[in-house]
Design goal:
The chain is mostly helical and 125 residues long. The chain has one domain. The protein contains six helices and two strands. A two-stranded antiparallel sheet has the order 1-2. The longest helix has 33 residues. The model has no long low-confidence stretch (mean pLDDT 93).
Length: 125
């Protein structure tokens, strides 16, 4: 079980953020069509972006233990003992990604907060 490095983690973040941003923009524009023509209530883009982050990571890591960024770099999420994480662990991991301080724990904990708190890691596939 070989842990991936910080460069690989940065590539995951870049690829996954691009996918989430495009998805959130499409949902936002789709919803705004209904706002404009049917009088639905307007929501800020942040609601779409952060719910897309949570949904993307929760669904992808629950079903496949990897996201598109991890698929590109041949990596996957595992628990510290090398097994596939449970749904509750993935839920907690996805929820912690929404905190703004998540990435700042790297120098202190050896990785992001969502890895430390959920007792998971990202390894080569």
């Amino acid at each position: 079980m070989q842990k991936v490095g910080d460069g690989t983690r940065a590539l995951h973040l870049f690829i996954d953020t691009m996918v989430v941003t495009i998805g959130a923009m499409l949902l936002f524009r789709w919803r705004n069509w209904y706002v404009m023509y049917w009088g639905y209530e307007h929501y800020n883009f942040g609601w779409f972006f952060f719910s897309s982050i949570f949904g993307y990571y929760f669904i992808a890591e629950t079903l496949f233990a990897k996201t598109l960024g991890k698929l590109f770099t041949h990596s996957k999420v595992v628990t510290l003992n090398g097994k596939k994480p449970s749904i509750s662990i993935i839920f907690w991991r996805s929820l912690l990604r929404l905190t703004i301080i998540d990435l700042f724990f790297g120098p202190f904990l050896g990785g992001p907060l969502h890895d430390f708190a959920s007792k998971t890691t990202v390894v080569e596939d």
